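Chain A, query sequence.
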Amino acid sequence: MTGAGIIVIGGSAGALEALLEILPALPAELTIPIVIVIHLLPEHPSLIPRLLSRACQRPTCEAEDKLAIQPSTIYVSPPNYHVLLERDGTLALSVDPPVHFSRPSIDVLFESAADSYGPAVAGLILSGSNEDGARGLLAIHRAGGVAIVQDPQSAPHPVMPAAALHWVGPEARVFAVGQLAGFLATLGDAMLPPQDLVR
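Chain A, predicted structure.
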């Protein structure tokens, strides 16, 4: 892989704290867009886009259906919707049933990213208390993308990263939170639209 077309990140309990450390440390030259799913209570508006926007100085917004993905931008899942990546470089929202009792589901995002971006996607699993995301990270790995996991020992809720490591195996890249921004910065800034990828 010479450059990631997109970075997808999933997490649950403890993930917001990790994101508030990782995202502000990313260099401005890294123009890869980032799509984030964090498990949310369906009945409450999400404050996460506002918190991340204040912290990281990148354009940050809630994901919307049919929204075209732009470089250097962070997209955050809205409550009670799955977020998917389409091959035409847009986002899609879905009200399909919850996965692992969660909507949005990390697996849904990651599997759509693997299908649309193939080897030009990097997936990161952060802290959380269930196994959502493990199957999706495996799909990214099998598509030739980069599978990244927060070291469970550095996660306040290690079940989610431990499950991802179990599914992907030793080829997953494992880092403590303080090392993740540095690794993401090495992925390259090639913005590769899905339709331009060699599949």
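DSSP finds six helices and nine strands in the chain. The domain at 6-192 is CATH 3.40.50.180 (Rossmann fold).
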